Amino acid sequence: MFEILSIIPGKKKLTGSGWHSFNAVCCHNRGHKPDRRMRGGIKFDGPNRWTMHCFNCSFKCAFTLGRRINKNTEQLLIWCGIDPDQISKWSFESQQHKDLLDFTNGKRKLRRLKFKEVTLPEGEMLDDRNPMHKVYVDYLHKRGLTTSDYPFLVTPNGEGRYKDRIIIPYTFKNKIVGYTSRFIDNKIPKFINEQQQGYLFGYDLQKTNWQFCIVVEGIFDALSINGCAVMHNTISDEQAVLLKNLYKKIIVVPDQDKAGLEICDRALDLGFSVSLPNWEVKDVNDAVVKYGKVATMLSILQHQTNSKIKIEMKRKKIDKRL
């Protein structure tokens, strides 16, 4: 977002009462004599709100992160030389912070970011040195993964439908809060999930020094690139709060099919970027298998955009291919 004091032209002086004084730009624009006595003032109320008041012509405006930029504040920014299109972008960006700020201010129930601990089903830690685990290791290799990519559990001694499955634990702040079982016998269903509302897979995988987070649909997509998986073709309100709480650039990579592309509109509404690389495959995991992890990541970063027009053109091109 914008730093208002860096936008206001001229010198500023901090007073003992907490006002940042400056020559008000509003006066001569409103038919008064130009202010040369630093009668304009801005005062901050915490990190996310400020108020402006002119003690000469009585012009007032304010800004609160999480709300749109109102007409008076827009006018102040225009007087300071800011392009109206840029102001519209800032206003949109501000509104995208509402969910996160509501949570941090205690206006939303904490259940949105809390998940109860659960017990994992019985299984063995996957070990590529165990001959009984070879079928599971081979399956992961086909998906471009290794035994060291995640703490997988397997069930070589299970019976009936509890056999031939890879168990992928769901963690949140290093606690087990669910899991999915991926069966490798090609029977239906392929997956059985124990998942709580609003859970975001891969949240614990994100590092504080990473500048961006890749958001995908499937778990194996996320594991392929250390991203986050929403596990359906939209982003829930709870997941949006979690993603914004990472304080990173969010890049959503949809599955390249008709159902997967539906997430594009939701991503843009949340202020996230969307990436639709020129792949000949359906999803991120397929891309990693075909092109490699580094090439896949580079193509995601190269094709990221916030432009609705560019994304719509890409969607139409993919639709024709399907």
Task: Describe what this molecule looks like in 3D.
- About 2% of the residues have low confidence.
- It contains twelve helices and 15 strands.
- With 322 residues, it is α+β, with helices and mostly antiparallel strands.
- The protein has three domains: 92 residues, no CATH class; 79 residues, Alpha-Beta Complex (DNA primase DNAg catalytic core, N-terminal domain), CATH 3.90.980; 124 residues, Dna Topoisomerase Vi A Subunit, Chain: A, domain 2 (3-Layer(aba) Sandwich), CATH 3.40.1360.
- The strands form three sheets. The chain has a five-stranded antiparallel sheet. The chain has a five-stranded antiparallel sheet with strand order 6-7-8-9-10, with no helix packed on it.
- A hairpin with a 5-residue loop joins strand 4 and strand 5.
Task: Describe the structure in brief.
The chain is of the alpha+beta class and 322 residues long.
Task: Looking at this protein, list some descriptive labels.
Dna Topoisomerase Vi A Subunit, Chain: A, domain 2, alpha+beta, 31% helix, DNA primase DNAg catalytic core, N-terminal domain, 19% strand, five-stranded antiparallel β-sheet, 3 domains, 322 residues
CATH architecture of the largest domain: 3-Layer(aba) Sandwich
Average pLDDT for all residues: 89
Give the neighbour order of strands across the main sheet. Answer: 1-2-3-4-5
What Rg, in angstroms, do the CA atoms define? 25 Å
Number of domains: 3
Distance between the termini: 39 Å
Structural class: alpha+beta
Largest sheet: 5 strands, antiparallel
SSE series:
HEEHEEEHHHEHEEEEEHEHEHEHHEH
Helix proportion range: 25-40%
Strand-residue proportion: 15-25%
Helix tally?
12
| Uncertain residue ranges | 106-112
Quickly name the level 1 CATH class of the largest domain.
Answer: Alpha Beta
Instruction: Could you tell me the CATH topology label of the largest domain.
Output: Dna Topoisomerase Vi A Subunit, Chain: A, domain 2
The tally of strands reads: 15
